[in-house]
Write a structure and sequence with these properties.
heterodimer, A: 247 residues, elongated, B: 416 residues, mainly alpha
Amino acid sequence: MPAIAVLALRQAIVTQPSGRQCQMANMLANIFGLSPVQPLEEHIEIAFRCAKKLRPLFVAVIANDWDTALEIRADIEALEHEADNVKKEIRLHMPKSLFMPVPREDLLELLLVQDRIANRAKDVSGVIIGRRMHIPDVLAEKFVEFVDRNIDAAKQARKSVRELDELFTAGFRGAEVALVADMIEKLDRIETHTDEQQTVLRTALFQIEKTLDPIDAMFLYEVISLTGEIADMSERVGRRLELLLSQ
Amino acid sequence: MEHQLIYISLAALFGLFMAWGIGANDVANAMATSVGSKALTIKQAILVAAVFEFLGAVLAGGAVTSTIRKGIVDAELLAGTPELLVYGMLAALLAAGTWLLIASRNGWPVSTTHSIVGAIVGFAAVGIGVDAVQWGKVGTIVMSWVVSPVTAGFIAYLIYRSVQRLILSQEDPLAKAKRYVPVYIFLAAFTITLVTILKGLKHVGLDISIRDSYLLAIGVAIGIALLGAFFISKIEPDPKAEKSQHFYTVERVFGVLMVVTACSMAFAHGSNDVANAIGPLAAVIGIATTGEIAAKSELPIWVLMLGGGGIVVGLATFGRHVIATVGKKITQLTPSRGFAAELAAATTIVIASGTGIPISTTHTLVGAVLGVGMARGIEAIDLRVVARILVSWVVTIPAGAFLAIVFFFLFRTFLP
């Protein structure tokens, strides 16, 4: 009997009269807003996985395995879509009334450039599949190295962003800041390397472009450019993080 | 006094209901952080809270209870008609309890202390006369409602900044944590023990000299700090967990400190909030048994024990559900942050209890959390809720007063 009474009282006190969601009267519980840190880390994870799929895609295309290539393209699209959903959720739960240790705008900007990594990966895959692109044999090996290095950049960006919750714990001060600054520096070096690789690739393409169909050649330049942007976007993620560190 | 049994029974019933409500809803604020951060299991938290809420109520709750009982209403004016005070205190208890039920149902954040004080001022000012209220004392109390969250916030800010500088922003935070956390444990235990001994133990009949008080507090604190250091030395880093969360083991070290501050918080809460239920009851008992407003009469200790017991029952029946629910929502309050907030709040509350001022323990804790937020320690604070809390401040006092006035006139008309 007492148990039933307790349960009934609990029901009466904790739930709303209307059909609305259970609203707690507890001051302490409600004062905490939804933290964007965990979702941001989740988002960069998805964006990285999306970019990572480019390697198997290029390998399949070079081997002329279009069935596999189409599957991978579908995966990339799904991951990019998932990243978009997480992005929307984060924006939805960051009202102006949320008080955070870093400016809301800075976090939203970070989210934006993170998302661009996934977008670029999707763009690259779209062009390759859409053109049923053939990668010339002389370029194949360099291309795959180039793609790998861009994925490394995305991986380094992911590693840096995953330090966000530690940065928050350390109050954006001290040893953790030095650690992340090092990571961002390494990211810069990777991006510079991809720039060099891009130059080499374009030069190699220039040497054989007369032997190719002009439109195919143009789209090959396009794909090189788009792929290079993955490292660019990753570097921008590093830049945004640096801004947060300098608060 | 005639019909004293009816009055005392009613007062005891309403008072116990208030105590039960306080145990069910408020205690969660003291213990939820420890449960949410896994420093304690729910069973351990309930046990800790039960013991320390009771101790706080009995050992340190006397001064605030006296204030509620006879510090707000000027008893002299009622010498000829003591039953008015009985009706009024009963009305105040019922009003505060009703308002809390209404607010809980609607999800409004309200304070038990604001409700009961508003209710008492209400019935006294309107039911008896404006002169019946000791406005000087009331003014002090209301000012303290502003001062206590601000003070707790400031102290929490300082504590958390020190933690950031000494431990969290260092090269090897784990080593620094193992070195400094015992010091924090010492400070926590020392402060709470000292304030309690200096201010709180009078009502229990103990009288200790100032020098002995300090020595005793230091002794107790050293003992607790050594015990804490022992548990800390047992903590080994977990390489797998460290990979995803660098501060995982550091937080576990702070978890030991959290147990100490959780005890402090439960003690402090018991010392200040027991009065909200027991103060009016003590007033009724005092008048009903002696038939007169005896301003000098002592507060019987069994009344404090009754209040403490009511809180424990509320905690054990309903409180565990609230603790679990709140604990899930405040995961941002990791041990390193939670302890700073709890220590600051507990210190502020215990000082207020010692000085006999009824303050809102929840507002004080919220103020402390905001202080940690100011030190950039909280990832996201919803300022709309802060605004809602401020609104509830303004609304609760007139609401409690209004309900108390209504009940007062009802009792005066219908009670013998």
